[in-house]
Design goal:
alpha+beta, Nuclear Transport Factor 2, Chain: A
Length: 293
């Protein structure tokens, strides 16, 4: 009886050791699972331990209570800073061109190169300034010449329509000084017949230039339009002519601009006030070379 009981106790003792080993393996697996998934609670059930006392009674298996384990949070490590979007685009563009952003080489400018570039810039600036200065001078010279043409045209028109019966040689000399040689001879012929009328009626005339327009200019020849008003006082009364228009052609002769041709256009208005006060409208279209006194 005693031998049977002892053998039975040995078997129960071996079974208890196997159960403890299995429980240890289960507990180790639970701890590994908790390490992989933090925050979860592992429950491990171990098979109950049985033992028989010496009196042959059996012990009931007592299950182990599940022990909650604290979740161990993973430490948040520093995030690696990735390349910015703009940097990535720049790197992509450089890669597409065959350039490597890591292989940029800065070449220091040579002093000779800097001096050469500075000299080139200086020469360019000076050349541009000279060209502009010459162009400005050319335009200024053209403007002065054009003004000389206008002044000579106005001077000739005023001398043509302004005279004094007591000094006809002086009026003739003024016209010859402003006219070309050919036109001067033509005027002499016309003035000879006009002088008799001016002297007979004791006519004195004045003229005022309104406007002078430059119609054409090529450096050697010019055409102008002169608009002026005139007044002639004589024994016949007072003759007023408004808006007389003279088309003049000028040429350069002996270093000066001179009138070489003339065309007279009808005046805007013309009146004759007689000594008795009556006003008449004389026939218009009279040529200035032969003004009525």
């Amino acid at each position: 009886m005693t031998a049977k009981t002892t053998g039975k106790l040995d078997e129960e003792h071996d079974a208890t050791e196997e159960t403890s080993a299995e429980a240890a393996e289960v507990e180790t697996s639970a701890e590994a699972a908790e390490a992989e998934a933090p925050g979860e609670t592992a429950e491990v059930e171990a098979p109950g331990e049985t033992a028989e006392e010496a009196g042959g009674t059996e012990r009931k298996a007592v299950p182990r209570k599940a022990v909650p384990r604290k979740a161990v949070p993973k430490k948040a490590g520093p995030k690696k800073a990735g390349p910015k979007k703009a940097d990535r685009k720049t790197a992509d563009a450089e890669t597409a061109r065959g350039d490597s952003p890591k292989r940029r080489v800065r070449v220091a400018a040579s002093p000779r190169l800097v001096a050469a570039v500075a000299a080139l810039v200086f020469v360019t600036a000076v050349t541009t300034a000279v060209i502009q200065w010459r162009e400005a001078g050319r335009l200024a010279g053209r403007d002065r010449t054009e003004q000389q043409v206008r002044d000579r045209s106005a001077e000739f028109a005023r001398a043509l329509l302004a005279y004094r019966h007591a000094d006809l040689p002086g009026a003739r000399a003024n016209i010859r000084a402003l006219a070309s040689a050919d036109f001067g001879r033509q005027y002499e012929t016309a003035f000879n017949g006009l002088a008799e009328v001016i002297t007979k009626y004791k006519a004195d005339a004045t003229a005022t230039v309104r406007e002078t327009y430059l119609n054409a200019f090529d450096g050697q020849r010019a055409k102008t339009l002169v608009i002026l008003d005139s007044e002639v006082k004589s024994t016949m009364g007072v003759r007023r002519v408004l808006g007389t228009k003279l088309l003049l052609e000028l040429v350069q002769e002996k270093g000066a601009w001179r009138v070489n041709g003339m065309t007279s256009l009808p005046a805007d208005d013309e009146t004759l006030t007689k000594p008795d006060g009556t006003v008449e409208k004389p026939q218009q279209g009279t040529t200035p070379q032969r003004p009525n006194p």
